[in-house]
Write a structure and sequence with these properties.
408 residues, alpha/beta, Aspartate Aminotransferase, domain 1, Aspartate Aminotransferase, domain 2, seven-stranded mixed beta sheet, 13 helices, binds pyridoxal-5'-phosphate
């Protein structure tokens, strides 16, 4: 590297400091958070922001939750990492709790969503090979999906924008238009091994599959000997108003990928599978150095404590109803700005009739942080324990800015 650029700020990152990072992100240059508490984020100069993005559905209980701080602190003083060469009681406990609360019997821990997806893909192929159908190796996904950024995950996503420059990506994925059930039936061949879908599509536009679609997919998988992977990296762990979103639709997957909210901000991912699938993932088939280490698993257990607290999932549903009702009113009142509300639980999308970035920037000027999604949407992902007062505050800011933009 050539001459280093000196920072002129004592603690904050400067523009020049960013020069040493890949230029693959574009954060607002003048905004740096120093700490957070619950749904609020603070800057060095003392400004307070309302965080309705939660680090993209990750800080499920907001910032600095005392139970999570305590769990991480306590574990950090005991043991950080031993690798999966040795037993990890915290991970065994987390796996047991996830299995008891879901369809799953066996859990593999990873460090991210995309790794949970990779494990899911390997579990599908591993199963088909183990039951004597090695020719079944292709997986059918839906258009506009997002399954992560590794080569296999972008190949599974069926979104040309993620694949550009990274060809070849024919690693065994076929795609149908989102929700097109006739196309699904037609796409199945002798080489098909499984189907991968987001129960609630996230990045591509906040879009839940319907109960009819999911039950059709389940029936087709059962009839043709295929495995169903649900990607619940974003919509899982309470965000839908249930522990996992599939519970809303009355079906069960064979494999489920989880991450994001599972660590509440500490990196952890999980691939949950039924015994039928899990029995084949024996020694030598898959692994991870960091996956499910004591720190990550301790925090994951603390997150589950909070998800299972009485009233938490009710809060998700209640705050979701309030937010959606407020947004629906704005859609009727300001159709030149907002045209549709969608989502499930506290994963809420509002489609914009102006560029979504314009509304996002206007909201940020008013100290409300939201995300964006495909289909020109803004995306609300507040913490699962968000309060009435913060929901009211967020809706007030949304009303102010949407009404102002409607005037143009
Ligand atoms: C975020 C996301 C991923 C990828 O997770 P990473 O932790 O970024 O690797 C996969 N699938 C869905 C649905 C996601 O929202």
């Amino acid at each position: 590297m050539q001459a280093a650029t000196q920072s002129d700020s004592s603690t904050g990152a400067t523009f020049n400091e960013r020069d040493a990072l890949w230029p693959n992100y574009s954060p607002p240059q003048d905004l740096v958070f120093t700490h957070g508490l619950g749904t609020e984020l603070y800057t060095e100069s003392g400004e307070t922001y309302l965080d309705f993005l939660s680090g993209i559905a990750v800080t499920a209980f907001g910032h600095s939750h005392p139970h999570l701080v305590e769990a991480l602190g306590a574990q950090s003083k005991k043991l950080w990492h031993v690798s999966n060469v040795f037993r990890i009681p915290e991970a065994e406990k987390l796996a047991r709790r996830l299995a008891e609360a879901s369809f799953a019997d066996r859990i593999f821990f990873a460090n991210s969503g995309t790794e949970a997806i990779e494990a899911s893909i390997k579990a599908v192929r591993g199963y088909q090979a183990a039951v004597g159908k090695p020719e079944r190796h292709r997986i059918i996904g839906m258009s506009d999906s997002f399954h992560g950024r590794t080569i296999a995950a972008v190949a599974a996503s069926g979104n040309p924008s993620y694949v550009q420059n990274f060809a070849p990506t024919d690693h065994g994925f076929d795609h149908i238009a989102w929700g097109d059930m006739a196309a699904l039936d037609a796409a199945i061949t002798d080489n098909t091994a499984g189907v991968i879908v987001e129960t609630v599509q996230g990045e591509g536009g906040i879009r839940p599959l319907t109960a009819e679609m999911l039950s059709h997919i389940r029936q087709v998988c059962d009839a043709r000997g295929l495995l169903l992977i649900l990607d619940e990296v974003q919509c899982g762990v309470g965000r839908s108003g249930k522990l996992f979103a599939y519970e809303t639709f009355g079906i069960e997957p064979d494999i489920l990928a989880s991450a994001k909210g599972l660590g509440g901000g500490f990196p952890i991912g999980a691939c949950l599978v039924s015994e039928k699938v899990g029995q084949h993932m024996v020694v030598g088939t898959h692994g991870s150095t960091f996956g499910g280490n004591p720190l990550a698993a301790a925090v994951g257990n603390a997150v589950l404590d909070l998800v299972f607290e009485p009233g938490l999932l009710e809060n998700v549903r209640k705050q979701a109803d309030t937010l959606r009702a407020g947004l629906e009113e704005l859609v009727s009142e300001c159709p030149a700005v907002l045209s549709k509300v969608s989502g499930l639980g506290l994963m809420i999308g509002a489609r914009c009739e102006i560029p979504n970035v314009e509304l996002m920037t206007a909201l940020r000027r008013n100290k409300l942080l939201v995300g964006r999604a495909g289909d020109n949407m803004i995306r609300l992902l507040p913490p699962l324990n968000v309060s009435d007062a913060h929901v009211t505050q967020a809706l007030d800011i949304l009303r102010l800015e949407v009404r102002r933009l409607q005037q143009f």
